[in-house]
Amino acid sequence: MPLEPLVYWVDRTFGRKIVPDAIRAAGRKVYHHDDEFPENAKDVEWLPYVASNGWIIITRDKGIWTTPFQRRAFYDAGARVFIVTATALRAEDEAKLIVSMLNRMEEIVAETTAPFMARVNRTEVVLRVPIPSDFGA
Q: Residues 6 or more apart from 71 whose CB is under 8 A from it?
Protein backbone atom coordinates (compact mmCIF):
# COMPACT_ATOMS: atom_id res chain seq x y z
CA MET A 1 0.00 0.00 0.00
CA PRO A 2 1.51 3.40 -0.94
CA LEU A 3 2.20 5.92 1.78
CA GLU A 4 -0.13 8.87 2.05
CA PRO A 5 1.49 12.08 0.83
CA LEU A 6 2.68 14.39 3.57
CA VAL A 7 0.64 17.48 4.33
CA TYR A 8 2.30 20.63 5.62
CA TRP A 9 0.70 23.17 7.91
CA VAL A 10 2.21 26.67 7.91
CA ASP A 11 1.46 28.94 10.82
CA ARG A 12 0.64 32.65 10.76
CA THR A 13 4.26 33.74 11.23
CA PHE A 14 4.83 33.32 7.49
CA GLY A 15 1.86 35.17 6.06
CA ARG A 16 -0.82 33.67 3.80
CA LYS A 17 0.76 33.63 0.34
CA ILE A 18 4.47 33.48 -0.39
CA VAL A 19 5.60 30.51 1.73
CA PRO A 20 2.45 28.37 1.28
CA ASP A 21 2.43 29.08 -2.46
CA ALA A 22 6.10 28.07 -2.76
CA ILE A 23 5.44 24.77 -0.95
CA ARG A 24 2.48 24.11 -3.27
CA ALA A 25 4.62 24.94 -6.31
CA ALA A 26 7.09 22.31 -5.08
CA GLY A 27 4.30 19.74 -5.42
CA ARG A 28 3.33 19.45 -1.75
CA LYS A 29 -0.05 19.86 -0.11
CA VAL A 30 -0.14 22.68 2.42
CA TYR A 31 -2.63 24.37 4.70
CA HIS A 32 -2.23 27.78 6.26
CA HIS A 33 -3.24 28.53 9.85
CA ASP A 34 -6.07 30.81 8.75
CA ASP A 35 -7.54 28.08 6.51
CA GLU A 36 -8.51 26.13 9.63
CA PHE A 37 -8.48 28.50 12.63
CA PRO A 38 -9.34 32.05 13.66
CA GLU A 39 -6.42 34.50 13.67
CA ASN A 40 -6.19 34.55 17.46
CA ALA A 41 -6.22 30.77 18.02
CA LYS A 42 -3.71 29.72 20.67
CA ASP A 43 -1.11 27.00 20.12
CA VAL A 44 -2.89 24.74 22.61
CA GLU A 45 -6.00 24.94 20.39
CA TRP A 46 -4.48 24.18 16.99
CA LEU A 47 -1.58 21.87 17.91
CA PRO A 48 -3.73 18.84 18.82
CA TYR A 49 -5.87 19.21 15.68
CA VAL A 50 -2.92 19.61 13.33
CA ALA A 51 -0.95 16.77 14.96
CA SER A 52 -3.97 14.42 14.99
CA ASN A 53 -4.28 14.92 11.23
CA GLY A 54 -0.61 13.97 10.85
CA TRP A 55 0.27 17.32 9.30
CA ILE A 56 3.85 18.60 9.43
CA ILE A 57 4.10 21.98 11.17
CA ILE A 58 6.39 24.71 9.83
CA THR A 59 6.73 27.77 12.04
CA ARG A 60 9.02 30.61 12.98
CA ASP A 61 7.68 30.57 16.55
CA LYS A 62 10.66 29.65 18.71
CA GLY A 63 8.34 29.73 21.73
CA ILE A 64 7.21 26.21 20.84
CA TRP A 65 10.77 25.21 21.76
CA THR A 66 11.57 27.67 24.55
CA THR A 67 8.33 28.16 26.49
CA PRO A 68 7.48 25.27 28.85
CA PHE A 69 3.67 25.32 28.34
CA GLN A 70 4.09 25.45 24.54
CA ARG A 71 6.61 22.59 24.65
CA ARG A 72 4.18 20.60 26.78
CA ALA A 73 1.31 21.24 24.30
CA PHE A 74 3.56 20.21 21.41
CA TYR A 75 4.70 17.04 23.20
CA ASP A 76 1.22 16.05 24.37
CA ALA A 77 -0.15 16.52 20.84
CA GLY A 78 2.54 14.29 19.33
CA ALA A 79 3.43 17.00 16.82
CA ARG A 80 6.15 17.05 14.19
CA VAL A 81 7.49 20.60 14.04
CA PHE A 82 10.10 22.38 11.94
CA ILE A 83 11.10 25.78 13.32
CA VAL A 84 12.73 28.13 10.84
CA THR A 85 15.48 29.86 12.80
CA ALA A 86 17.20 31.63 9.89
CA THR A 87 16.75 35.36 10.39
CA ALA A 88 16.79 38.54 8.32
CA LEU A 89 15.33 36.87 5.25
CA ARG A 90 12.80 38.37 2.88
CA ALA A 91 9.66 36.26 2.49
CA GLU A 92 10.75 35.11 -0.97
CA ASP A 93 14.13 33.97 0.36
CA GLU A 94 12.50 32.26 3.30
CA ALA A 95 10.21 30.40 0.89
CA LYS A 96 13.20 29.30 -1.19
CA LEU A 97 15.00 28.11 1.95
CA ILE A 98 12.02 26.05 3.10
CA VAL A 99 11.51 24.51 -0.33
CA SER A 100 15.23 23.68 -0.55
CA MET A 101 14.96 21.82 2.77
CA LEU A 102 11.72 19.88 2.06
CA ASN A 103 13.49 16.67 1.04
CA ARG A 104 15.59 16.68 4.22
CA MET A 105 12.51 17.47 6.29
CA GLU A 106 10.71 14.53 4.70
CA GLU A 107 13.65 12.23 5.50
CA ILE A 108 13.43 13.29 9.15
CA VAL A 109 9.66 12.68 9.18
CA ALA A 110 10.21 9.18 7.74
CA GLU A 111 13.00 8.32 10.19
CA THR A 112 11.74 9.90 13.42
CA THR A 113 8.86 8.99 15.69
CA ALA A 114 6.66 11.90 16.78
CA PRO A 115 6.79 14.07 18.70
CA PHE A 116 9.86 15.86 17.48
CA MET A 117 11.12 19.34 16.73
CA ALA A 118 13.80 20.37 14.29
CA ARG A 119 15.44 23.68 13.50
CA VAL A 120 15.76 24.84 9.92
CA ASN A 121 18.66 27.24 9.51
CA ARG A 122 20.31 28.57 6.37
CA THR A 123 22.39 25.46 5.77
CA GLU A 124 20.78 22.45 7.47
CA VAL A 125 17.92 20.92 9.38
CA VAL A 126 18.89 19.99 12.95
CA LEU A 127 16.70 17.42 14.70
CA ARG A 128 15.87 17.63 18.37
CA VAL A 129 13.74 14.89 19.87
CA PRO A 130 12.23 16.15 23.10
CA ILE A 131 12.09 14.03 26.18
CA PRO A 132 9.78 14.57 29.16
CA SER A 133 12.59 16.05 31.25
CA ASP A 134 12.56 18.96 28.78
CA PHE A 135 9.42 20.17 30.55
CA GLY A 136 10.71 20.55 34.08
CA ALA A 137 9.06 19.31 37.23
A: 64, 65, 130, 134, 135
Domain range for 57: 7-130
Q: Are 57 and 9 in contact (CB under 8 A)?
A: yes
The C-alpha R_g of the chain, in whole angstroms, comes to 14
Domain assignment of residue 2, yes or no: no
pTM for the predicted model, two decimal places: 0.89
Pairwise CA distance, residues 63 & 6, whole Å: 24
Residue 50 maps to which CATH number? Answer: 3.40.50
- Provide the domain count of the chain: 1
Mean pLDDT by 10 residues, the chain (137 residues): 76 88 96 89 88 93 79 88 89 93 94 91 82 55
Using DSSP's 3-state secondary structure scheme, residue 119 falls into strand
- Residue-wise pLDDT tens digits, 12-27: 888 889 999 999 999 9
